[in-house]
Amino acid sequence: MAEAGIRTRLLQSLKTILAPQYILATEEQLKPFECDGLSVYRELPMLAVLPCNTGEVCSILALCHELGVPVVTRGAGTGLSAGAKPHPQGLLLVLTRLNRILGIDPDAMTARVQPGVRNLAISEAASVHGLFYAPDPSSQIACSIGGNIAENAGGVHCLKYGLTVHNVLQLHGFNARGEPVTVGSGGLDSAGFNLQPLIIGSEGMLMVVTEITVKLLPLPQEVEVMLAAFDSVDAAGQAVSDIIAAGVIPGGLEMMDNNAICAAEDYAHAGYPRDAAAILLIEIDGSPANVQEQLQATREVLKHSGATSLKVAGSPEERALYWKGRKSAFPAVGRISPDYYCMDGTIPRSALAGVLNYIDSLSREYGFAVANVFHAGDGNLHPLILFDANIEGQLEAVEEMGGRILEKCIEVGGTITGEHGVGLEKIRQMPLQFTDAEIAQFHRVKEALDPDNLLNPGKNIPLLKHCQEYRALAADIEPNRLLPRLGQGQ
Amino acid sequence: MQDSAHILQSQVNDAVTEQRALAICGGGSKQFYGRQVSHDRLDTRIHTGITEYAPTELVLTARAGTPLAEIEATLLQKDQMLGCEPPLFGEYATFGGMLAAGLSGPSRPYRAAVQDTVLGCTILNGNGEILRFGGKVMKNVAGYDVSRLMVGSLGCLGVILEATVKVVPRSPAELTVAFTIGRDKAGALVNDMRRRGLPVTADCHDGDRLLVRFSAGDKEVARLPVQLDRHYSFVDWHRYEDDAFWSQLKNHELPFFTEGRDIWRLSVPAAADISSLIGNAHDVLTEWGGCLHWLKTEASAESVFTVMDACNGHASLFRQEVRGASDQVFQPLPDWHMTWHRRLKTAFDPAGILNPGRMYAGL
Questions:
Q1: Using CA atoms, how far apart are residues A6 and A29, in angstroms rounded to an integer?
Q2: Which among A188, A305, A426 is the top mutation candidate for probing chain B, defined by the most B β-carbons within 10 Å of its own β-carbon?
Q3: How much of chain A exceeds pLDDT 90, in percent?
Q4: For residue A486, what pLDDT is reported?
Q5: Distance (Å, rounded) from C-alpha B321 to C-alpha A89?
Q6: How far is A49 from chain B (nearest CA, A)?
Q7: What percentage of chain A reaches a pLDDT higher than 70?
Q8: Are A321 and A237 in contact (CB under 8 A)?
Q9: B30 and B164 housed in the same domain
Q10: Residues B5/B124, Cβ–Cβ less than 8 Å
Q11: Residue B292 CA to chain centroid, in angstroms?
Q12: Does A220 touch chain B (CB under 8 A)?
């Protein structure tokens, strides 16, 4: 059937499922949905819909399956890897209206929520029971739990509390045919294969999730936040390892370099020392006795690790201010540069100094300033490359530089994405981290669960025919470096 | 320490050529678990060694045939441990067996499940390809999470060759307390203790009393009796001196497990009503804040599975002492779910040579 014919049929049938105001068809209506948080990738979908219940989602998926129309599922649209970029011949399934908290069970310490519920709203609702939902990406005020599932979102408290995958118990939803599917169970494990981790982080490519049971944790009784300054990033990096070696697992352990410190300080007035080469924000939480023991141990470590100054937040307000500086680092950098490009590699902490030096050398080579914020506790780097997209050629140069940072992450034993996902953005780096045989295995997984390739096609996993080309491009840019896995197992 | 990945690979390749099924086997400590199959053995114990251990990264990488006891001893030297507290079921348990069985110990709700500890793994799929997924870092979302899919797959999707796991610091001090309280009130008590910030790391109700283990720093543990007196004066409690209890529980060495009766493992929501299955209060051991029951019953498999379906849980016939080798070991899956299982099996093991039938017939 011709494309126009499919569009007409789809539109007619959708009108039998949804009220007309929830079917978006004109360019004007579709424009706000052309991209997610990574706005350099834009595309208008054929149509977009905003269902309000699972019955509508089910009918929409069955219809798209019948017509062979691809479906891209979208939550709040805060993703940073173009995972929710619309498909030009596809339907954009926007789940923001499925935004109800279906129930909180304080005895079981769980919450049942719909995918459009904002991440922070879960913790807010749970707080009356003295509970919270642990994963807290910086976008938590806006991002939805459905998107968190799609990307396996992290946040600043992952070292102690884990990622989304560690905090979800059960998922209900639909397969690409619109048939109901449940993974996980009401208990702490499930019968058969362990499918839940396969779904979480699959970027909406294996099923559409319409209900999530998350694990809640007791709010820590006491929280202390320390701010430690260092005159080199090496010393700050070493201090992180020393803290872990002392047996302390902080709730949060964040590092910022001087560019990030200055931008955040100008924006949030958090009390960060502008002259420091690096700061660490260390949050210790738990019972009062435990917090005091760990705080003391951390103080001792930091004294020996060469911290040039050390402050413990004296009040909840000061604590919130320290975190405000960190959590607003991205918009803060956005104020000092027309555009910035946020990278998301993860490395073993021991490789930190080498990778930061490499980023510094790239910064000079390309002429772009870089501000580094770093989930130091779990090795997740977020270099922010500052540029101006209105200057011709800068975006391409920044993407190339970003690609080289990711390749360095792979070289030192890390990964191209810690928490933002591959989407379209990092699809060219996938063949550097994975062999053709591994990528072929990913495709077979996709085919097993979505045989018609209708759910978010084209994201996350590159086509095999492009892999050699991407590897060759990477080798052209930096011919002297042998990428660690290049040429293996082809 | 021995790298035998390529020997295992050629054994899998031979099996594919000859259309011969393989039973993947490590130390054989969990041979009793799952459906019984009689294929040629693929012995992972030739592939051994801790290849990397970085205590300050909280990361350990080991080959599948490495004895778990060796890994635990190595971690102990640096005051670290596996947060999932895996059962050993004998001295020969291997690292690969821990991952393939995916069975977590008493600390599971409080520290981690086996799947939570896994950061990455290298597998041999049914095409004889050596594939690496995940990595050695805490966060990694590139591609689908095949590493954690492998956990608990009983070797039906691939031979685990090597894996990297996250480790945790050991707590300097521990205290076990026995509370005289009924099973029906035990879950709420544990829940209350957690919400007060008490460092619960294990719990078990045996029909008469609730044992709770606390793990934390020396000072915090020293203060615990005062806190228990303050908050729980309505319950009789006393310090429980038998430190071996928790390892006997996880390894099924308590008398409860050694009476020669069939034992079911029920994984359920904490508030699930399983009373229809319980004949005698001493025929159930309850862990995980009420989410895990070990049950001795002569009820039919169908009736156990029906109760589980009704309460959103699942059951497995964990020890088949009386019934002998049963076909119905694991909770039957709905049709759509079995379809996904079959398709995934084909995606990883198209010739169906890796542990076929160990989990479900035809898988």
A1: 19
A2: A188
A3: 87
A4: 43
A5: 58
A6: 27
A7: 97
A8: no
A9: yes
A10: yes
A11: 11
A12: yes
